[in-house]
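Reopening this one. Same input as before:
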Amino acid sequence: MALTAFVPRVHATSFVVIPARLGSTRLPRKMLLSETGKPLVQHTYEAACLATRPEGVIIATDHEEIETAVRAFGGDVRMTSVALASGTDRVAAVARELPEADILVNVQGDEPEISGEAIDRVISMLEEQPDKVMSTLATPMRTRAQIESPSCVKVVFDASGRALYFSRSPIPHAREWRDEYLTSTPATYHLHLGIYAYRRDFLLQLAALPPGRLEQIEKLEQLRVLEAGHSIAVGVIDQATPGIDTLEEYQDFVRRCG
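Same output, byte for byte:
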């Protein structure tokens, strides 16, 4: 019997979920910082609402203070357990309540300048590539300091955009360094950006998988997906929007808001 070709859905039902914890080691109570007149999490919510493909944007939190703040500005918020270990677990907790969802997009709460186009891009990548269970983004790296920084996660991918590996180390590792690697087109090095889209069924499976060996070494959760034999689609965009991890970065954001 001939197999029926799979035709991907042109418009999958998708939702953005923004994990927002109150606790933050480097910048305490980061989600509720309000020097702009709005809490940081509201800026991220409003930025995510500019995407055109999602059916809705939901904030997943572990604390009543954030829940109260979100309700005050009219956002959609869901309480999740304080025991959940990661943002992915929080997104999965919301996904269990959304059986109508095909795709869930994980946008970090400290990304107040995330572009709607980036969110739409990771959704469309899964719509167009039925063999991928996740999608994410990357941008070219043009400084050697960034390439060598362990805090900058690098990704390498094949000609079709399928992720081969993520690492805190420089990948590919140049046996003999050449400055042309910083200016090459296409780029030699790519910075991984922390936005993910997941197929709902896979996300629920992922949350139940134990951490992988490589994941535990690199402390990169996305390696769990590769270790389990699944494919992640990587899209390249021109530049990243700045996230907020430190007080200085938050103050820079406040100045940009003017």
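So the earlier flakiness isn't reproducible anymore. For the record, The first helix runs from residue 40 to 48.
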